[in-house]
């Protein structure tokens, strides 16, 4: 009985570790934050509300981390008697700027420049770009495309604005610009007839 009792005393208590991971300046949950036990090699992630739940052992050290925030550490007391342990972890933002990483499909930048300069672009005629900009195709698409409600509204507003500008005399008017309806044009024509400008010259 004594060895079994000593072995039972040596076992660590299993604790259900639960909590919410929030930002440091508010209680908004951080989704996707990892809750990891390095010694056990297992962990979990927070849900959309920042909540997590994972079984650990008394005395474990838990690392809580998320991209853009500083790591936080929680240690379960070795002599913790209860079966559950709940916390609210407030992560602080990490303002560290990562260095720029450039990925090239070439070993060196010199090889990339050489390949870029040797690149042969397709000619405009017969290329896919030229086919997409073909006037006949674009005209066919324009004539067959259904008119949306926004296009109808825009056209109506433009016609109203043009009609108002015509009334104010700031836009071309087909009626006022017609020489047959312009009295000054008639007066000029009568004067030209009187002066004999339309007579045949010998």
TrEMBL record:
The lineage of its organism: Bacteria, Pseudomonadati, Bacteroidota, Cytophagia, Cytophagales. The keyword Protease applies. It comes from the Bacteria. GO terms for molecular function: carboxypeptidase activity. This is Carboxypeptidase-like regulatory domain-containing protein. It comes from Hymenobacter oligotrophus. Keywords: Carboxypeptidase, Hydrolase, Protease.
């Amino acid at each position: 009985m004594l060895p079994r009792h000593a072995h039972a005393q040596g076992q660590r208590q299993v604790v259900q570790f639960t909590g919410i991971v929030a930002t440091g300046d508010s209680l908004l949950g951080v989704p996707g934050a990892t809750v990891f036990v390095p010694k056990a090699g297992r962990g979990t992630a927070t849900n959309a509300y920042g909540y997590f739940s994972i079984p650990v052992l008394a005395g474990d050290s838990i690392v809580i981390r998320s991209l853009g925030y500083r790591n936080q550490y929680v240690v379960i007391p070795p002599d913790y008697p209860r079966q559950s342990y709940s916390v609210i972890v407030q992560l602080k933002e990490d303002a560290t700027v990562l260095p720029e990483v450039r990925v090239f499909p070439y070993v060196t930048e010199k090889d990339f420049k050489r390949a870029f300069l040797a690149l042969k672009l397709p000619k405009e005629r017969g290329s896919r770009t030229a086919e997409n900009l073909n006037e006949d195709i674009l005209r066919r698409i324009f004539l067959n495309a259904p008119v949306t409600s926004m296009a109808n509204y825009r056209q109506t507003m433009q016609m109203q604005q043009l009609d108002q500008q015509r009334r104010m005399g700031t836009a071309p008017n087909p009626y006022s610009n017609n020489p047959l309806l312009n009295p000054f044009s008639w007066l000029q024509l009568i004067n030209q007839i009187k002066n004999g400008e339309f007579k045949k010259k010998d």
